[in-house]
Each structure stands twice: as structure tokens, then as C-alpha cells.
Amino acid sequence: MADAVEPAGPPDVGQGVGHWVLHVDLDQFLAAVEVLRRPELAGLPVVVGGDGDPTKRGVVSTASYEARAHGVGSGMPLRIAARKCPEAVFLPVDRPAYDAASAEVMATLRALEWDGHPVVVEVLGWDEAFVAAAARPADATTGAATRGASYIGRGRPWAGADDAHGLTPVVEAGQGSLPPVIPEGKGALGGSRPGPGSPTDPRVFAALIRERVLEATQLHCSVGIGDNKLRAKIATEFGKPRGSFVLTAQNWSEVIGERPTRALWGVGSKTARKLAALGIETVDQLARSDVRVLAAELGPTMGPWYHRLGRGAGDSVVSGEPYVPRAHGRETTFQTDLEDWVEVAAEVRALTERVKADIDAEGRSAARVGLKLRYRPFSTVTRSLTLPEPTTDLATLQTAAVSLLERVEQDRAVRLLGVRLEMVPPPGGY
Ligand SMILES: [Mg+2]
Predict the structure, then answer these.
(1) Domains of the chain
(2) pTM given for the model
(3) Cα(103) to centroid(ligand 1), Å
């Protein structure tokens, strides 16, 4: 079954609510929050990043759609953004404001009900979360699900495995080869007959999500609808802005088969290059590739994993458990490059002290130490080591972090340093 051709055609939305994972992503989140408190910026190119001064160093955190139209994108140095769009309004990053807006969005999502089911919300970041239906309160006593976890993917033979759903394709308008934007639709919750337009229709619920988030926060979001997390996450990009999109086993190949492998969540430029060296450029080519070759070239674990990714397979378990960080890190971009490596070592020690305070706040020890170093003009290297034993001792952590400097070339000026401490798992694991 693993390599069977998926049934083609538009996605069948006549499934029960337990079939679906939704991915909610705020549109141009940071810029949108800024525009809310400065309405005069609406419609203007807005760039949020660093301390808001494009003559200084720093990178773009979020650009408004108006700025994106000029080629400004996240991660771009502010100075380049200013060159591409000189008329843009540059604003400093204001974390407390985004934390507050994010908390409001997540609270709104958690308060939703889908056809009588409470929902589970798995926060992925400031501006994105997976949402799925949990068992109805009445069902919980039957042991169908535990509180705080979606029943999607639980107790099903195909959970996290290949998509052997055996869906019956239902032909229906609105989901062609072009990414459709589903119009606003209001669905009265309460009924439960599956079918297009009914309360179980994920597009109806997606519209409700966008409506409620907008009401509560004045922020617009897009909603990806998938039969697993991977497809939901990718679907969001097709729904943007202010829309939703359905991506399932049925339309996977049709929608993204021709796209480069980089379109997949989990494939970065490094992996894309490795795949290209094997003659695999597109998602379809990855899906049809020989899993043995992938295993031989990319490793016995990662090879098959990428193969499944190409077919859009992935897990569907949405967990409402609070997020437990695996690591803490801090980094600094210097306004003037550091040329003196004694000074570089001193900065590494100072950063380590700040990160140690972060892990102390969680009461956990560090097990691994990582160093990030960016040379002038912009090339970045990372190094890391596992400590002989987990520790919270500052001097030991500083010595370990500084020792990583011996593993980089000390022949160029440094514009950025970062230190990361990976912690031991909490009792009971992640
Ligand atoms: Mg977003």
C-alpha cells in the first residue's frame, strides 16, 4: 500500500471532525500588530526588525505584504530591506506586544467548539498553531480520548503511518488546481451530519476560526486544512492571505507534486541540494524515488522519512500539552565587528551566563553546548559538543562554550555570536 497511487480528485470534506487537522497562521503577524496600534500605517510597507533602524545591523522579523511586494522578506538584513524598499516604515521588535496578541489568539482558539467537540490547540509559535477536535465531553468517559489530546491518529492502525484511508472521492466545486480562497461561511454548530457545508465540514470550521480570531483580536489569519499535520501546515500557504485551503492525500500530488522539494516542511536548502544530486528536484520525484537509494544516501532513518514526506505522509496527533523547550539560546549582532578574539571569547562567556539564567529559570541542567558564529560579511558556522555530564555550573559551561572557538577559523572579523544550551529532558521525557 505504501507506494500505491493515491486516489486523485478533490478532497472529500464529508468526513467526521476527527479526520482533520487545521493549521492556523496569522497573516503578517508582527506587522499586523503594529498597524493595529498605529492605524495610519495601514496599507503602507511596514518592516519590523532589530531596533527599527535600518542603518544599524539586524534582520527583518516580519514584512507587511506591501513591503513583500518590493522583495523584502524575513531574515533579510535590514539594510538590504531599506535598499529594496526605501519608503518602508521600519519599526523595532516589541516582544511583549506580540506575546500579548499571541496569547489572545491562542485563548480564542482554545475556546472554540467544533460541532459540539472541544478543540485541542498545539501552539507552534507566536503566530501559528494546530487545531483539532477532541472527544466530546460525554465521550471522554468512554475512554475515547484523554483530556488535552486530540483523538486524531490515536488508536488507529494508520496513525502516523501511510495514508491508506481508502477515501471515496467526492466531486465537488471549489477545489480545483488553483488555490481557491474559501469565502466566509457561517456554520451553526450543533448538527453533526457530515457533508459539504455542514458543521463537520472543515472549511466551515476554518471560516469560523477566522471570524472569531478577527472579532477577538482584529487580526486576520489563514487556515490550512489537512488529513495530517504536514498537509495542514503546507495548505496554509495556499490559503494566504485571509483564506483556507484543503490539502489531503487526494489532491497532494496535483497541488504540490510539481513544486521543488523545498516546498516541504522539513526540507531545507541543504537537503534539497542532496536530493537534487540524486536527480530529485520535485515533490513527485521524491515520492516516486527509490527508498533504498534515499536510505543509502541520507541515512537509514532520514532517507525513508524524506520519502514519506514526498508523499505527504505524517502524523496527526495534535497535543495540547504545554510546550516544553529543549534548549535556550541567546545571540547578539555586534554593531561593530569584533576583530579581537580575546574579546570574542569574553562575549561568548557573557552570552553563556545569560543563557544559564534561562535554564536556571526552568531548573534544568545543560547537556549540550552550541555556538553560532557569523563572520563578516554574512557566513555562519555552528559548532556543538556534548558535556561529559549534565551540569548547571557556570564556569564549566563557559569553558565548554569557549572551547568551541578552537573549532572555528579565527582569521576573520565576527559580526554575530550565539550560545545555545540544550537541556536534559524533563522527568518523564518530552
Ligand atoms: Mg504567520
Answers:
(1) 17-27+97-165+184-255 (3.30.70.270), 29-94 (3.40.1170.60), 257-310 (1.10.150.20), 327-423 (3.30.1490.100)
(2) 0.71
(3) 14
Give me ligand 1 centre to Cα 105, in Å.
12
CA 279 to centroid of chain Cα atoms: 28
Q: Which three cell numbers stand for residue 427?
A: 522527568
**Separation of 62 CA from ligand 1 center, angstroms?**
9
Which sign does the torsion angle of CA 168, 260, 128, 426 carry? positive
Cα of 136 vs centre of ligand 1, distance in Å, is 30
The protein residues having their C-beta less than 5 angstroms from ligand 1 (an ion) are 25-26, 29, 127
Contact call for residues 213 and 108 (beta carbons, < 8 A): yes
Q: How far is the CA of 28 from the centre of ligand 1 (A)?
A: 5
* Residue 211 bears catalytic tag: no
Query: pLDDT by residue for the chain (430 residues), tens digit each?
Result: 344 444 566 788 888 899 999 999 999 999 999 999 999 999 999 999 989 999 988 889 999 999 999 999 998 999 999 999 999 999 999 988 999 999 999 999 999 999 999 999 999 988 999 999 997 766 544 433 343 444 333 322 222 323 333 222 222 233 333 333 443 333 333 445 677 888 899 999 999 999 999 999 999 999 999 999 999 999 999 999 999 999 999 999 999 999 999 999 889 888 999 999 999 999 999 999 999 999 999 999 999 999 999 999 989 999 888 777 889 999 998 989 999 999 999 999 999 999 999 899 888 999 999 999 999 988 999 999 999 999 999 999 999 999 999 999 999 999 999 999 999 987 777 6
Residues 6 or more apart whose CB falls under 8 angstroms from that of 10 comprise: 169, 170, 171, 172, 174, 175, 176, 250, 251
Give the strands of the sheet with 128-133, arranged side by side: 113-114, 117-125, 128-133, 21-26, 221-226, 244-247
Nearest to 209 by CA among 335, 279, 109, 343: 109
Cell numbers standing for residue 77? 538584513
DSSP code for 423: E
Catalytic choice (40, 128, 172, 331): 128
- Distance from C-alpha of 348 to C-alpha of 357, rounded to nearest angstrom: 14
Q: Is the peptide bond before 388 cis (omega within 30 degrees of 0)?
A: no
